[in-house]
C-alpha cells in the first residue's frame, strides 16, 4: 500500500452514528489511527529493506544476503504488517464484544487486505446481527447459550426446576461438589435471571456474591447443596441438589411460568 493511500485513509470521514454510538465511532477512529500510524512506518521500512536487498543481493561475489536479510528483515516486516492488520480487526471487534456482550466471527478478515478501514469492520459486524441491534443480539445470544446446556425443565408451583443442570463430582475427601464447569453454567443462568428481572445481561450483585461464596466453599457440600436466599422481587432463592437439579423459587407461579417459557424453552404439556 502506498503512502498516499495511507494518508487518504486518514482523511476519510464516514458517519456511522445511525448504526453505532458516537463513543463507538470515536473508539474505532482511535484504533484506526493507531493502525495507520504503525502501517506507515512498516511500509516505509519494508520499502527501504527491499530496495537495499535488491541492490546488493545479486553481486559479483555471489553473496545473497548482506546486512539486510530476506528472512530476518523483509519477511519479518511483512509478517509484522500482517499481524498489525489482524490486531486492528481484533481491537475493534473486542470493543463491541466487551461493551455489548456478544461474540463476533472474525472470518471476514479473509476478504480484506491491509487497506481495510474501521467502517469495513463495522459493516461486517452489523451484517452478523441478523437485523437486530447490539442489545437484542446480546440477549438472544445469552438465551441461546443457556439453552445449549443439557437439562430438563419442570415447573412446580412457583418453582422452575432445571434437572441435570449442575454436574457434580467427588472431591478429594469423598464429598460431593460441583464439577469444574459450574462457574460457566451458573454465570449463564444468573445472567439470564438478571435479564429477566432487571434487563441486565450480566449477573447482578447478589448473584455475584453467591458465586463467590460457592467458590470459597466448593468442597463444603453442606454449604453448597442447600437453599440460598436471593430475595429479589421476582427471584426468591436458588437451591442446589446433589442429584444435579437446580430449583429457582420465584415470587409466584405466574412468574415461574413466564421465565420457564421465555428463557428455558419450556412448553406446557
Draw up the topology in text.
Elements: H1 3-10, H2 22-57, H3 70-100, H4 118-127, H5 134-147, E1 152-156, E2 159-163, E3 168-170, E4 176-178, H6 182-198, H7 205-216, H8 221-224, E5 227-229, E6 235-240, E7 246-250, H9 253-263
Helix pairs in contact: 1-2, 2-3, 5-6, 6-7
Task: Kindly describe this structure.
There is one protein chain. With 269 residues, the chain is α+β, with helices and mostly antiparallel strands. It has two domains: 3-128, no CATH class; 138-263, no CATH class. Helix content is 53%, strand content 11%. The chain has helices at 3-10, 22-57, 70-100, 118-127, 134-147, 182-198, 205-216, 221-224, 253-263; strands at 152-156, 159-163, 168-170, 176-178, 227-229, 235-240, 246-250. The strands form two sheets. It has a five-stranded antiparallel β-sheet. It has a two-stranded antiparallel sheet with strand order 3-4.
Q: How many β strands by DSSP? A: 7
Unreliable spans are none
What is the approximate shape?
elongated
Please state how the strands of the largest beta sheet are arranged side by side. 1-2-7-6-5
Largest sheet at a glance?
5 strands, antiparallel
How many domains, in number, for the residues?
Answer: 2
Mean pLDDT: 91
Order of helices and strands: HHHHHEEEEHHHEEEH
Counting DSSP H or I runs of 4 or more residues, the number of helices is 9
Amino acid at each position: 500500500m502506498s503512502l498516499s493511500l495511507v494518508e487518504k485513509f486518514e482523511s476519510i470521514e464516514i458517519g456511522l452514528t445511525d448504526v453505532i454510538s458516537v463513543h463507538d465511532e470515536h473508539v474505532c477512529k482511535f484504533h484506526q489511527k493507531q493502525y495507520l500510524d504503525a502501517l506507515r512506518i512498516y511500509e516505509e521500512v519494508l520499502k527501504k529493506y527491499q530496495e537495499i536487498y535488491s541492490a546488493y543481493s545479486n553481486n559479483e561475489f555471489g553473496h545473497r544476503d548482506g546486512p539486510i536479510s530476506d528472512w530476518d528483515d523483509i519477511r519479518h516486516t511483512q509478517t509484522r504488517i500482517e499481524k498489525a492488520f489482524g490486531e486492528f480487526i481484533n481491537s475493534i471487534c473486542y470493543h463491541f464484544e466487551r461493551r455489548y456482550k456478544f461474540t463476533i466471527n472474525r472470518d471476514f478478515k479473509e476478504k480484506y487486505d491491509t487497506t481495510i478501514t474501521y467502517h469495513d469492520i463495522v459493516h461486517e459486524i452489523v451484517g452478523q446481527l441478523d437485523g437486530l441491534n447490539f442489545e437484542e443480539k446480546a440477549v438472544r445470544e445469552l438465551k441461546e447459550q443457556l439453552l445449549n446446556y443439557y437439562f430438563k425443565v419442570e415447573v412446580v408451583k412457583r418453582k422452575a426446576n432445571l434437572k441435570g443442570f449442575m454436574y457434580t463430582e467427588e472431591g478429594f475427601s469423598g464429598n460431593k461438589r460441583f464439577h469444574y464447569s459450574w462457574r460457566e453454567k451458573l454465570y449463564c443462568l444468573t445472567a439470564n435471571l438478571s435479564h429477566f428481572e432487571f434487563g441486565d445481561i450480566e449477573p447482578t450483585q447478589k448473584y455475584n456474591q453467591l458465586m463467590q461464596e460457592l467458590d470459597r466453599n466448593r468442597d463444603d457440600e453442606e454449604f453448597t447443596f442447600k437453599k440460598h436466599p436471593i430475595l429479589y422481587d421476582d427471584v426468591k432463592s436458588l437451591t442446589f441438589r446433589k442429584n444435579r437439579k437446580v430449583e429457582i423459587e420465584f415470587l409466584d407461579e405466574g412468574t415461574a411460568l413466564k421465565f420457564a417459557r421465555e428463557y428455558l424453552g419450556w412448553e406446557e404439556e
